[in-house]
């Protein structure tokens, strides 16, 4: 018989998978931040824009799916984080809106803002969204300043009752002042640019752009590794937010996240394999001039690595969204999830996820049968 606890853990696994997919697909944003650096001519820039333009909807759709699934499965997180860390989420979401508008309107004849303005917005989306996403994910380990009046949940709908309150007037912007958060924010930013460079190497039929992309794998891969190691080592040796399985009380445990990797050996092994896969894709691309498949190692490796990090933050009696001002307000997969009925119904729907993923893979492969060059771009019926 399926238990409530099983469903809560099941949906945390689903959310972790979506989180890993989202971070990987941010290579589109990474590529947008490279437009001016990689291109030397207008036709090169247009080629890069159109190469990314065939993928930007995947990132946007995954972001919407991630937010919607979080709202349905763990509504208390949704109300606490999206309502409290307001400015971080709003700035990120507005940058995605600007991205969508930019792709659709930059080449429209007679647009008022001009092509340069829209491409500047693409750059800002590439910079802001990747950095802030890393900041938000890091807060799953470092904590945020909020309190939750769990007793008010019973009286939901009554006038004057508030379930969660953010305790910092900066409404999420204070997260940018945490050095550990910054290290992961920069790691995600440089990772996205590295994945974009690997994607260009694999996808483009343009010798000059491919050569420059190889250099940018080195330029961005090195700082990614540095900032990721800073965050990882800092997190593994720091105190973590543990949950007493009997009482449900939250307390600080030394090296909690390292203990989680050890106590969940499958998660620990997959995490190591994910990291190795990312590094292999980067290092072999730098070392071998004819190797063009780095994205197919670094991409899946990114998905697995991020997924395992998120599993470590929420499983094995761990508070996945800790409160740094009131430990007992910290959110766990048990005290923040939807009802048994809601999770059960959603689980039936989740069985269609493999079908959706299969369709994405099929559509991706169909679009990638032929590398994209200037000649192919001119013969394309739709360009950005």
From TrEMBL:
<keyword id="KW-0812">Transmembrane</keyword>
<dbReference type="GO" id="GO:0046872">
    <property type="term" value="F:metal ion binding"/>
</dbReference>
<dbReference type="Pfam" id="PF02322">
    <property type="entry name" value="Cyt_bd_oxida_II"/>
</dbReference>
<keyword id="KW-0560">Oxidoreductase</keyword>
<keyword id="KW-1003">Cell membrane</keyword>
<dbReference type="GO" id="GO:0016682">
    <property type="term" value="F:oxidoreductase activity, acting on diphenols and related substances as donors, oxygen as acceptor"/>
</dbReference>
<feature type="transmembrane region" description="Helical">
    <location>
        <begin position="222"/>
        <end position="242"/>
    </location>
</feature>
<dbReference type="InterPro" id="IPR003317">
    <property type="entry name" value="Cyt-d_oxidase_su2"/>
</dbReference>
<keyword id="KW-0813">Transport</keyword>
<keyword id="KW-0349">Heme</keyword>
<feature type="transmembrane region" description="Helical">
    <location>
        <begin position="340"/>
        <end position="362"/>
    </location>
</feature>
<protein>
    <submittedName>
        <fullName>Cytochrome bd quinol oxidase subunit 2</fullName>
        <ecNumber>1.10.3.-</ecNumber>
    </submittedName>
</protein>
<dbReference type="GO" id="GO:0070069">
    <property type="term" value="C:cytochrome complex"/>
</dbReference>
<feature type="transmembrane region" description="Helical">
    <location>
        <begin position="12"/>
        <end position="35"/>
    </location>
</feature>
<keyword id="KW-0408">Iron</keyword>
<dbReference type="GO" id="GO:0019646">
    <property type="term" value="P:aerobic electron transport chain"/>
</dbReference>
<keyword id="KW-0479">Metal-binding</keyword>
<feature type="transmembrane region" description="Helical">
    <location>
        <begin position="56"/>
        <end position="78"/>
    </location>
</feature>
<keyword id="KW-0249">Electron transport</keyword>
<feature type="transmembrane region" description="Helical">
    <location>
        <begin position="117"/>
        <end position="141"/>
    </location>
</feature>
<keyword id="KW-1133">Transmembrane helix</keyword>
<dbReference type="GO" id="GO:0009055">
    <property type="term" value="F:electron transfer activity"/>
</dbReference>
<feature type="transmembrane region" description="Helical">
    <location>
        <begin position="295"/>
        <end position="320"/>
    </location>
</feature>
<comment type="similarity">
    <text>Belongs to the cytochrome ubiquinol oxidase subunit 2 family.</text>
</comment>
<feature type="transmembrane region" description="Helical">
    <location>
        <begin position="262"/>
        <end position="283"/>
    </location>
</feature>
<feature type="transmembrane region" description="Helical">
    <location>
        <begin position="182"/>
        <end position="201"/>
    </location>
</feature>
<feature type="transmembrane region" description="Helical">
    <location>
        <begin position="84"/>
        <end position="105"/>
    </location>
</feature>
<dbReference type="GO" id="GO:0005886">
    <property type="term" value="C:plasma membrane"/>
</dbReference>
<keyword id="KW-0472">Membrane</keyword>
């Amino acid at each position: 018989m399926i238990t409530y606890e099983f469903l809560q853990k099941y949906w945390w696994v689903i959310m972790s998978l979506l989180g890993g997919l989202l971070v990987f697909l941010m290579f589109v944003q990474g590529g947008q931040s490279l437009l001016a650096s990689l291109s030397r001519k207008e036709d090169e820039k247009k080629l890069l824009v159109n190469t990314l333009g065939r993928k930007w909807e995947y990132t946007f759709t995954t972001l919407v799916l991630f937010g919607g699934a979080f709202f349905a499965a763990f509504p208390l997180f949704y109300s606490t984080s999206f309502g409290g860390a307001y400015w971080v989420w709003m700035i990120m979401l507005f940058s995605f809106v600007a991205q969508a508008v930019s792709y659709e309107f930059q080449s429209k004849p007679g647009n008022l803002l001009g092509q340069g303005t829209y491409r500047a917005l693409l750059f800002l989306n590439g910079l802001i969204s990747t950095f802030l996403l890393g900041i938000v994910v890091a807060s799953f380990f470092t904590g945020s300043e909020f309190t939750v009046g769990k007793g008010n949940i019973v009286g939901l709908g009554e006038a004057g009752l508030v379930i969660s309150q953010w305790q910092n007037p900066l409404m999420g912007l204070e997260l940018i002042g945490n050095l550990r958060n910054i290290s992961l924010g920069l790691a995600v930013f440089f990772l996205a640019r590295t994945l974009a460079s690997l994607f260009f190497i694999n996808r483009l039929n343009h010798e000059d752009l491919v050569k420059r992309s190889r250099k940018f794998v080195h330029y961005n891969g090195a700082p990614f590794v540095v900032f990721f190691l800073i965050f990882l080592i800092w997190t593994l040796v720091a105190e973590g937010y543990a949950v007493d399985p009997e009482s449900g009380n939250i307390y600080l445990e030394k090296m909690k996240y390292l203990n989680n990797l050890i106590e969940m050996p499958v998660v620990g092994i997959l995490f190591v394999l994910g990291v190795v896969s990312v590094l292999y894709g980067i290092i072999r691309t730098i070392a071998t001039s004819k190797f063009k498949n780095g994205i197919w190692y670094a991409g899946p490796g990114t998905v697995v690595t991020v997924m395992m990090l998120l599993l470590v933050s929420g499983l094995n009696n761990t508070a996945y969204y800790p409160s740094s001002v009131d430990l007992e307000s910290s959110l766990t997969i048990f005290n923040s999830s939807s009802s048994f009925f809601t999770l059960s119904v959603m689980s039936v729907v989740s069985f269609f996820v493999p079908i959706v993923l299969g369709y994405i893979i099929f559509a991706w492969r169909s679009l990638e049968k032929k590398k994209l060059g200037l000649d192919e771009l001119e013969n394309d019926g739709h360009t950005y």
